[in-house]
Design brief:
The chain is an alpha/beta fold and 242 residues long. The protein has 2 domains: 128 residues, Rossmann fold; 99 residues, LytTr DNA-binding domain (OB fold (Dihydrolipoamide Acetyltransferase, E2P), Beta Barrel), CATH 2.40.50. 34% of the residues lie in helices and 32% in strands. A 5-stranded parallel β-sheet has the order 2-1-3-4-5, sandwiched between helices. The chain has a 5-stranded antiparallel β-sheet with strand order 10-9-8-12-11, sandwiched between helices. α4 links the parallel β4 and β5.
Amino acid sequence: MYKIAICDDENIMLDCLYNKIISIIDGHGRDYEIFKFNSGEAILDAIISKEIYFDVIFLDIEMENISGLEVAHEVCSISDKINIVFVTNRDDLVFDAINYRPFSFIRKSRLNEELELVINRLKEKYKKENEFCEINIDKKKLKLKLKDILYIESQGHYIFIKCMDKDYKIRGKIFDYEIKLMNYEFIRIHIAYLVNVSHIRFVKYDGIYLDNDMVLPISRKKIEMTKNKHLEYVRTCVHGNN
């Protein structure tokens, strides 16, 4: 069951989002449940006290008492797996909101056009999150979710696959994995490193900074390409495919 939360302190917008989301998702044939909240306090109570896990939260930024940014801060401290979609008329708050690594933004003034685009992207993300990379360890096949792979490192005849919760060491060539993952969000930043772009926080000349605070070396000739790839990824998160 896919759980969706909508949080907006304006009841008219809350009901509008609710109805539009239902009309779009009904056409995707997915089992879902939608929860409505008219304040930041209410949604945080559901998440913290009632321990309800949401797959996605459509979150107004400007709300009384507890703002959407404050809600996002609490949500991110609890789980980095919840997709946050900010819904706002304040373009000037986008850069503040990016700190919480939202899935996307929707402008209330363009709700009809952008909401369906975001929902389609959520559907694609859900599909990608269930894509696996198959590796052989001790003559056994193991499937790793691509979204959980931070980076792949080459050392001699071995490669190390660094995941969010575990590392794997196998014999192999990083080039083979570069080819295998070329249609996904992976980029070769160095002769020895293949990185999942979705885990890059920012790119500097001294290295790649990941969202787990690790820093990886980057080849000088790869800096601009990596910056562009990361910028493209961030723009997609902010504006969708527009």
